[in-house]
Amino acid sequence: MTQQRLAFIGAGNMARSLVGGLIADGWDPAVIGVSEPDSHQLGALTSHFRVSTVTDNGAILAGRDVVVLAVKPQILREVASSIADQIQQSCPLVISIAAGVRSSDLERWLGGNCAVVRCMPNTPALVQTGATALFATRKVSNEQKDLAESILRAAGLTVWVDDEELLDAVTALSGSGPAYFFLVMEALEEAGITLGLGRQTSRLLTLQTALGAAKMALESNDDTAALRQRVTSPGGTTERALEVFEDGKLRALFVEALTAARDRSRELADQLGGE
Q1: What domains appear along the chain, each with residue ranges and CATH number?
Q2: Could you read off the pLDDT of 265-274 as tens digits, one per residue?
Q3: Phi/psi at 264 (nearest 5 deg)?
Q4: Rounded to two decimals, what is the model's pTM?
């Protein structure tokens, strides 16, 4: 089957992760092109993945079926406006992985009437274990949705949302989520040290426990509540620790934190999309 021709605008960490994942999945490097003003980043992509690279965004777009916008949100308006004429002529599928920029704003900058898929990935995509939510505008065909999903799956799990506003909740949960887990792991490490464990021992036990718990949850048919109950013996040490967390209103604190993150995501989208 003929593979679609992809253009990446931007060669940052997320773009490199996607390019590497696609090639590992069997995509031909010859159908992938990357544009990036930083020649050092382009050199690394060429040497590692053998994809074509240029420093001019316009030069990478000719004949492309998909354009992945992988630039910082703060410069997306400038980049999109600069390629709008070519996008209007060729009408490729446009995939944006720029956080916080609504599809309506991006479509306006591109000249309107575009097939746009907006994505919210997270940083574990850098090690091909990311979680990405996708939203498609009405111009996106089912075939283009499948194509967008196959591209983002190169970096991990993908899910679709039907309401773009839910991407703000996704940002709060999985987009910012790695930092929450890092904070929990940091706190566990510090608590272990306080209880007398060596720093390296506490770190290794924390990281392996986090990995093991996530692996068990992913591979089990039971929900996380059932898994928690299974390892909580009545009157035991785990129950005593969990009682402290519950008394400290941990669940309510998570709701409060994610609500704050969601609200900030909305504020940033308003700022980025402002006229």
Answers
A1: 6-169 (3.40.50.720), 177-266 (1.10.3730.10)
A2: 999 999 998 7
A3: -65, -35
A4: 0.91
